[in-house]
Amino acid sequence: MATDSKPSEGDNCDPVELVRQKVQSLSTEDPGYPSALHEFTDALYDRFKSTGSLSDLDEFIECDEMLLSLYTQDHPIHLVALGNLGLAFRDRFTLGGILEDLEKAIGYLSMLMDRCGPDSAYFILSATNLASTLALRYRQTSDAADLTRAIEIYSSALSKCSDDNPTRDSLLNNYANALCSKFELFGDQADLEAALENYRICLNLRPPGHMRRSSLLTNIGDALRLRFTLDQNLSDLEEAITCYNDALQSCAAGQSGYVTLLTSLGVALCSSFEVQGDAEQVEKALACYRSALSASSGVGSEHIRLLDCFGNALQLRHQNTGDIEDLNFSVQLLSTSLELQPTSSTERPVTLLHLGNSLLMRFNITGDLADLNTSVDRLEMALQLCGRTHQFRPFILAAHGDAVLARFKEGGDIGDLDLSIAQSKAALLGFPTRSSYPALLHLNDALLARFGRYRDISDLHAVINQCDDVLNALPPTHCLFARFKGNRAFAFLEKFQHEGKSNPADLDLAIDSLRDIESRLPEGEGLFVSVHLHLAIALEVRFNSKGDEADLHTAIQHCRIAHRSCARKNSSYPAVVMQLGINLLLLYTFHGNGGNLDESIVCMADADELLSKRPGNTHYFACLVNLGSAFYKRFASRGDHTDLDTAIEYTTRALEVPTYQDKVPVLINLGMMLCTRHKESHVLADLKQCVQYFESAFATIPPAHPERATLLVCFAQALCRLAKAEDDVRHLELAIQYLRDAISIGRSDPYLPFTVADLVDVQRRLAMRRHDNDQLQASLDAFRALSHSIPKEHPALKMVYVSSASLLLHMFSLNKDPLFLDEAFSCFATAAARPLLGRDLVISLKWAKQAERLHHSSELQAYRVSLSSLDTFTHSTLAVSSRHKFLSQSKNAKYINLLPSKAMACAIERRSLEVAVELSEQGRGLIWHQLAHTRTPLDALRQADEDGMALASDFERVSAQLERWSSRSISEMTAQASRLTAEEDTRLYKQRHREWVEIINRVREKKGFESFLRALAYNELQEAAVGGPVILLNAHEKHCDAIVVTKDRPPLLIPLQSTSVTELATMGGTIYRMLKETGYVGEGKVRERRLVPVLRKLWDVVVEPIVNELLKFLPRGSRVWFCPTSKFTTLPLHAAGPYRRGLPNLPDIYICSYTPSLSALNRSRSQKSHLVSAPPLSFLAIGQSNSAINGSQESELQSVSAELALVESLIPSSSLSFKQISGDEGTADTAIEGLRTHAWVHLACHGKQDLGDPFASAFSLKDRPISLLDIIRAEPENPAFAFLSACDTAVGDEHTPDEVIHLAAGMQFAGFRSVIGTMWAVDDSTAQHMVKEFYKHMFSGDKAPDSTQAAKALNKASKTVDKNVVPLDQRIVFIHIGV
């Protein structure tokens, strides 16, 4: 309130120093001394009021106290001196804040009033000064006695003050101020009404133009604003704003009261916003505060109040817009206010309150625990500073309750929850009804949290009743209306979940209310994220209750909206991103879309990364549980055991988290996961632990628990496994009972088909154990009925078909009825045709195994489907190294790697040779094919039309992204910063892969492109044989065969009846042992003696039968290509022969090359030939004598320099420019750049085939190895030929031989049309002799260098090299790959 100062007394005299000289010239005994001293004190006080000099004030007080002693108590000057001393001490208190000065002021002013009777001329003035000083002390100490006494004195003074008294208006104003303060203290509206009456009387005494009318209008506005808080009458608030605006008309910047006036107007505008929701009012308020701040002196209570109100208004705007900068500025202003206030300031609790609120709001946005802890600390300080009768204590209690509730949600300390409720209830006791709404909101939030802890339904009823009362009282435009409506909806949602389906109206009411709130909320409003999050939860609950998929999709939309609007540091973010993950997991469960599952894991891993740093957070437990479930579902889909182990890890961690939440679902999940791991690994301990978890859950679960049916189903599944492990049918009987109980409970619609299918399957197992044919038939009938009743898109249908197939096969085994057999394989085919990534492969492999065992006519189709599923599954895996790991280490790896040979053998048996070639091609070099797809030439597509050009661009863009992801090494992937990063990469890869597949399908819709990237037909594969026959060699356990593919003939089958898989393995093993046992210099003859018998055997049983057929149509000296599979890949087919005098060996008959696949050879042929007229080609020689491969025990290569010099001497400089990289210059990066820019390359260095990860196989350079993945990523500009003079560059992986993953194949894939590689270790001392002979033949004659002549040159080199210098194993170690 603006308080009027007393009328000025006395008038200006001569300057202080002149009067001082006068006083100093007189002695204290001089009769004129008292009057001179009186004159001096008046001059000092006047100068103080002009300059504010504290030294003048101190000297005045000293002199005035002396003046008191010079006059008797009844002398008029003595009375004046008492009044002046009182005012001076009050002024010094105002400047210094020392309460002792204020006490002295009241003491002197009280003495003055006691000596001035009611009829004294000084009475009104003395009473006014004493009352205003008592009111000042009240504002400092909150002592109600001071306020009461001030009001009594004002009232007495007014009774003696005539209407024409010039001080009457000030007396009325100050009296009204005191009455307003009394109202704020005791809440008696009569005091407020009396204040307004006195203000209005005063206003009549201060007409427009009066110098103090502006401050009076400010006071009237403040009183009206107080009355508005009492009865929410908008007319009071509107009149208050009018008063403030009228006051501004006569009050300009720099004038006394201007800052106070703008501050009060800002407060009124903020109140208007809170009631009417008009955001423009907040903006006007902030404009007032900005103007006031620019005009403020920066000190004093007026400035402090401005900072507090400004900070509070920024909180309001933040709640409306969500702009964190408002909170940052608010915290800054309030912190500044706190620093400016003396520790004894009565304004300090209010500032601490606002600062605590701003910090709490900022914590909710950023999740910074420091803000939360500081907020609690500041609010506790505020509580300590204000007494139990302090007018702001209820507000502080409410805010403190809200802050400790937030701390409970972060740390889980139940004491914080209890304290929050206690503080909110205490706050409500101190509020009038209409001021209690914020505190009531805090209480509702705490009660909802307590319900989550104790599940006491009375807490929900309390929330609902309180919200109903408030909503009936508040207008819909009130800023808190939506909050209360939201709390009511949250309570009904919790009530429905707690009571089950007994009252579905509760759920619908919650959803309808939330939708109504959501429709009115702008994005960024404080409630926006919470409402969308709870809408998503409510719709998910309804989906689980009714099975309407539309609810689930809408829930995901709301989650995405909340996720988009919620910063990652926001305290609500973990709950939002976790709910999105949960809903996506549900959608995956319903539809089986792997993309939903991957995104679900990314979301929940994101939440885990944040919450693992705050393990006490109330969401952490649920996060671990749901993340475990997601990994488990992904294992079930894709069969990656790492996912299963990760699922068990997360769920075990959840079980160990100290929490009040229900752990029955966790026990169920963990038991289910262990049961599954037992199924995979057959470790009985897993199954025993699983049963223990189920028994623990069963012992504690109440009959009405929502997860009881789930527990029954899972326990039944575990008992089925235990029945098999312990050979005890009683477990099956109990399992059937549990499943029937689960069905009788009435599981929610989306999952009921699974339960029914489980029951029928267990009945089938029991019937099989008991040989009960009637029950078997009943089970089959039940499966047939399920196959017709379950919706076609439901994932349970796949399970029904697979179980039906197993039952039908069993029934066939009993009575040999072929109808059962055909129906069984029809079920397999139907199940395999239903898309569910990962499960398709498992089912098709099972189909293939059974079809092979029973020689069913669907065997070939089963192989075809299995190979297609394998391609789809592996292509969806992020990196090629991971794909290889799956092919070599997965549960079905052994069978998967036999698929191509089994498929080819089956087709051969059926005389479908073209199909045999197609299936062999489809199953071999799978990873190379997938990588090649991303580099498909698109010229024809571009030239088709504009749509084709756009599709080609899209295809190239996505293919480039996929290749970058695919060609990462295991070390690059494991170097990820967190599981979240790895999961996000996986999700993005799968998303791009789906986009890639969609583009392919769009291309295939175009006329002429129907076969785009489909498995090649035989007539397309024949193109590989344009330069000579390609011989496919297939090793199968039943028979080994060769199929000769030619350009213009039907495929030629050559049965290799004299050999077997076992004999091929024996030959390969013999060569391996020979190389291992005779690896020293000088043992060449020993190796030859051991090698020749193998080459002879290879000739007799494999190569000679092929050559005999080829000679019937293929002239000697022609080129042939071997395309070996399985055990053939380790054998030196190109060197086979009788090795007897007078008899030709294979190199004497044909020029041999190898190719990993027909497609690889086609790709090499499609590379553009180098024209003779083209500019001179470049030749790069790379040499490095030392190994940079970690762990390598290789010795230094002594002949590298000599070999490079030899190569340079043999290169025709007229047609090939030569460059050498060796020694210190021979770094990996330099070499990779050289591979990019040179057409011809010769590599002489150490090479290593990595048996664990073939894609990590590498050439050793100066600083680091060049891996196979580096070569793949190099993308040479115009590659033609590469000579790999290093060890083991054409040695594949024994676990996945048909994948042909080695360095030479990598060079071929990178684009080098013709590659020389090595089948085993190269002898450094003899290699240069083969190199010399090779290049001598390669560049003989005057023809331009031609990479397609490499095979012929190598063939000649092996014959012309000095056999006394180069032993047999080193003559045949080099092989040619490509064209």
TrEMBL record:
Ordered alphabetically, the record's keywords are: Coiled coil
**Superkingdom, taxonomy of origin:** Eukaryota
Outline the extent of the CHAT domain. Answer: 1093-1361
Coiled-coil-forming residues are 715-742
Entry's SUPFAM superfamilies? TPR-like
Q: Which PANTHER family match?
A: RAPSYN-RELATED, TETRATRICOPEPTIDE REPEAT PROTEIN 28
Protein name (database record)? CHAT domain-containing protein
Q: What lineage does UniProt assign to this protein's organism?
A: Eukaryota, Fungi, Dikarya, Basidiomycota, Agaricomycotina
